[in-house]
Amino acid sequence: MNLAKFFTKAVISTLLLSSTSLLAAPEVNLYSARKEALIKPLLDQFTEKTGISVNLVTGKADALLTRLKSEGRNTPADVFLTTDAGRLHRAEDAKVLQPVQSESLNNAIPASYRDPEGYWFGLSLRARPIMYVKGKVDPKTLSTYEALATPELKGKICIRSSSNIYNQSLVASMIAVDGEAKTESWAKGLVGNMARPPKGGDRDQIKAAAAGQCDIAVANTYYFGKMLAGGDASQKSAAEKLAIFWPNQDGRGTHVNISGAGVTAHAKHKDNAIKLIEFLASEDAQAWYAQVNYEYPVREGVKPSKVLAEWGNFKADNLNLSQLGDLNSKAVMLMDRAGWK
Amino acid sequence: MALPSSNITPSASLQAPSLLFRLRSKFTSSNLFILFLFSTIALLALPVLTVFSFIFEPASDVWNHLVNTVLSDYLTNSLLLLLGVAAGTLSMGITTAWLTSMYDFPGRRAIEWALLLPLAMPAYIIAYTYTGLLDFAGPVQTYLRELFGWQYGDYWFPEIRSLFGAICMLSLVLYPYIYLLARASFLEQSVVTMEAARTLGAGPWKRFFHVALPMARPAIVAGTSLALMETLADYGTVQYFGVSTFTTGIFRTWFGLGDQGAAAQLAAMLLGFVLMLILLERYSRKQAQYHQQSSRYSIHKRETIIGIKRLIASFLCFMPIVLGFSIPFILLAQWALGETIDSAFLLLAWNSLTLAFTASLLALTLAIILGYGQRLFPTKTVKAGVRVATLGYAVPGTVIAVGIIIPLAWIDNTIDAWAIETFDVGTGLIFSGSLFILLFAYLVRFLAVALGSVESGLQTIKPSMDDSARSLGFTPIQVLRKVHLPIIRPSLFTALLLVFVDVLKELPATLILRPFNFNTLAVRAYELASDEQLASAAPAAITIVLTGLIPVILLNRSINKSTLDNHQ
After folding, report:
1. pTM of whole model > 0.90?
2. CA contacts within 13 A on the Cβ side of A296
3. Measured between CA atoms, how close is B468 to chain A, in angstroms?
4. What burial class does residue A291 get, using C-beta atoms within 10 Å of its C-beta: 0-12 exposed, 13-18 middle, 19+ buried?
5. Which range marks the domain in which residue A49 is found?
6. Do B137 and A208 touch (CB under 8 A)?
């Protein structure tokens, strides 16, 4: 076997493959913590509309952030896009983002969903309501997240692990309102009410509820939407057994989080970067989030999809989302103490 | 390894005529070699040491918090997981390796390579498929409930998403490490030895326990330590099953609590486990040194077994294939049916293949250099250095990736700053912006795999072989090329195969370190699976498995062929 020859060929071809993007112009480079399937169609639309090609790396948010930090002023990235406000806040703290002033962004995005100085902009909203099995739970008995810890619900709740950022943010939002001591005793109560040790993802909680393992599940709405509208018949019939309850409507509102983006501190294509974020906040793109990914648009006046409309309107918690980042580690430690696996 | 010191002291050269000249050239080249050896080791150890260095960050109350709350969970779960996977992989790996290399039974030829198939299955994928199948809401339990009219709580069913489930999943995909290495060792064993045992009246059990097993011990221990290190590094499976181990703890502490120092302390404890494994391996090797004492090899002839024994042998070899490959594969195929596979898949498969091939060749080369370096200079420092260079295998990919990006980006930025100052032209990110960084990451992660099989191969060659070759005037390089490498060819192919499949499945490091617009099959499969879109992930997962099959089949043939060649 002529390994040396093969080896040379393999190396050259891989290097060539990776460098083809250097020849194209104009362009913008994106580090995205959103998965390719959830962002690529929008990026393609952007390229079609503006002629600016988008180069993409996806990955875990915290690792991409480390990469940004380490690369320093030589970073090729122009835009950092991630889910969860806490992470955007962390990126701002790490000084890898720069403030951007854009009239159209400020007009499109309500102030509570963007950084006051323009370091980052929220692009879509994701709600984490309570879901219940129709016929088994009277929605009138449900009220708030806090009430999930009442002893009547013993053995009836499915929720995923505390390692998950959605739960961490939910608990962080409760610490912000209720304080640490009260939230900790709440978490202990919730752990006592769990039908099983936390495992699996959000869809698994919905499936378990549908199968009879618990009556109440806590999950993000877009998983629910995808189960209802996706091609999988068994997932669809599982989701159809449940309904959404919007908690805390008489108080602060239902917990929401965002996905968002910011321009990197050392962006080499700053104008294109701003254009990209502006496009992602445009009406067409916002409608796409709702239609395809069942997230709520941040932009007001964008028509929600049919599925979203069926779930009704709700009041969202208007807590300043950067607080979620500040309180994240407190939330994780609190859940450890409460025995939330 | 008990290598006679005559190999490295000048006394060996005394027999040669042009004494002075040979002494000089030998010393300079061996010094150069040692220098090269240690710089390679330093480079490979850099990422792990980088992560380690965070230990010196100011201590926080997070560590106390961990000790008070979750640390004991991490400890017990990790230990139980290790023990369980060791038991599972050893029993499956050794049984199948012994049966297929010593006996002939129906389907043996097909079984021989089919036993490797689970290697191509990423652990998190098999975990997803079995959950889909055996979960409370899955078809099996639903069917049972419908059949007997049960409700939740009416009956007991093993919970797949548990510690026990994680042990099963990991054992099913990791046993091939032991199977491969043990089988190569059984096949490399001189037939004469076995026949001698037989003529002395040793029955099959006795021959197995008293002759074959001790001789294969280095290979088996190497395989087990690979499987266990892989277990420690696993994140996807334990995370999905809700089992808190060191790996999930590191992620939680680093990214959830935002405390690098405490995460590094956890990582240090994890490496403590690894060190324990390595010491155990060293110790077991020191206990007994087995080399082939006979140079008379003959074609190994398998015993044909009949009757009920034949059925049992077939069954024992079929089970791991059915459970570790067929069932998850059929499920994936079912899910994939509704999905479309476009031409983008060809590019993904091509990326995965070229990366895996390049990385496995590089890893093999380095493994030969390090393995042979140890044989030439068996000092404590060299041995310890080589161990340090392979620590990366037990560290989760994301942690390695972070350990790589920090020093490499720093080097890049330093070079860039210097270039700007001197030439007014920046060089940008030379290393961290290209595929170089990915290949480097694979070497750090998977060198242990290649080294394990190269070492266990070299170990079966008696040191006196080196001596005779050297006394006939061969240089160390010639000994390697003309004596060792041909003999251990099966082990070399094994090394190549293992790294290849590992890189093909590798995910976290690839995800973070890859250049723009560069995707692999594993990245595609994981992105969709982790978004809980199992059906959409199925085509990519199946392509990983199918792509992995090609080298599995090819290399398995080469292993068989070169074993035959050697023995003729």
Report:
1. no
2. 24
3. 29
4. middle
5. 27-126+257-304
6. yes
* Architecture of the CATH domain B18-567: Orthogonal Bundle (1.10)
**CB-CB under 8 Å, B65 with A336:** yes
Phi, psi for A127 (deg, rounded to 5): -100, 150
Tell me the one-letter amino acid at B49.
Answer: L
Q: What are phi and psi of A217, to 5 degrees?
A: -125, 150
Name residue B62's beta-bridge partners.
none
3-state class (DSSP) for residue B243: coil
Q: From the CA of B20, how many Å to the nearest CA of chain A?
A: 36
- Distance, in Å, from the CA atom of A8 to the CA atom of B280, rounded to the nearest integer, reads 39
Q: Tell me the pLDDT tens digit for each residue of B506-532.
A: 877 887 788 887 888 888 887 777 666
Residue B464 CA to residue B155 CA, distance in Å, equals 64
Integer Cα distance of A193 and A216 in angstroms: 10
Q: What is the CATH number of the domain that holds A107?
A: 3.40.190.10
How many domains does chain A divide into? 2
C-alpha B121/C-alpha B230 separation (Å) is 14
Contact assessment for residue A202 and residue A223, using Cβ atoms and an 8 Å cutoff:
yes
Residues A66 and A131 in one domain: no
Q: Please report the residues numbered 124 through 143 in chain B whose beta carbons come closer than 8 angstroms to any beta carbon of chain A.
A: 131, 135-137, 141-142
For residue B405, the one-letter residue type is I
**How far from the centroid of its chain's Cα atoms is residue A261's Cα?**
12
Distance CA A110, CA A105 (A): 9
Pair (A228, A270) in one structural domain: no
Query: In this model, does residue B435 exceed pLDDT 70?
Result: yes
Whether the CB of A197 is below 8 Å from some CB of chain B: the reply is: yes
Size of interface A-B (CB pairs under 8 A): 180
A114 DSSP assignment: B
Give dist(CA B112, CA A112) in Å, integer: 62
Say how far apart CA A19 and CA A55 lie, in whole Å: 11
For residue B507, the surrounding DSSP H or E stretch is none
| The residue type at B538 | A
Residues B367-391: tens digit of each pLDDT = 999 999 888 888 888 888 888 888 8
ipTM of the complex: 0.73
A279 and A180 belong to one structural domain? no
